[in-house]
Amino acid sequence: MDRAENALLLGSSAGGVATAIYCDRFRGFLPSAFRVKCFSDGGYFFLSNHHIKGNQFLSFFKGLINLHGSTDALPKSCTSKLTAALCFFPPNLKDGIYTPIFFLNSAFDLVQINYTLSIEYADCANHRNCSSRQVRVLQDLRTELLEFLPPLTSNSTKGVLINSYPSHTRLFDPTWNSMAPVANETYNQLLRDWYFDRKRVQIIDQNPCPDVDCTRPPY
């Protein structure tokens, strides 16, 4: 690795969380590399302010800390301000990540929905049969996700791609080579263009419903 010129740290789901945690540390292992970046797929989990009761993320992360003593592995830029459990959430890490990183996530991530709401909501999103009430709750969760994203500015080194397809990860899914929303390129192509500095990628699917046109029944 000491001779690497281009390097990419990537992970999906829990691996996407780990990518956010270790991104800058990874860069430190390759001081002479020309291009070092990170890619988090389906790992941009957040602690919902609107659905705290029954939220499984926080208890899960606290369990990791108690079991593995993970505090020292977390970025001190975060643990100096927040509890260790909160520093597993990438939105709490994003401002302290200086290595370029790309976040790919569904606005209706099935794990986020399941851990924040319940399997009932994840199932209806996955099978496209949510009631109007359920859709409103899912839209509220989507709004929170968008509020937790890194600032989308012209000088940002962070890539962001949020789609409205109810799913979890995409990197090892056949849809990796499908067309991304609001772009005339595939997910694969967009990551490559961002990695090789050919373009900024800051894309948010404006459809506020889980992969369905909200103007059509049953919504």
Automatic annotation (TrEMBL):
**Does the UniProt entry include the keyword Cell membrane?**
no
Q: Which UniProt keywords apply?
A: Cell wall, Cell wall biogenesis/degradation, Hydrolase, Secreted
A Pfam family of this chain: PAE
Q: Which domain of life is it from?
A: Eukaryota
Instruction: Outline what the protein does.
Output: Hydrolyzes acetyl esters in homogalacturonan regions of pectin. In type I primary cell wall, galacturonic acid residues of pectin can be acetylated at the O-2 and O-3 positions. Decreasing the degree of acetylation of pectin gels in vitro alters their physical properties.
EC no.?
3.1.1.-
Name listed for the protein in its UniProt record: Pectin acetylesterase
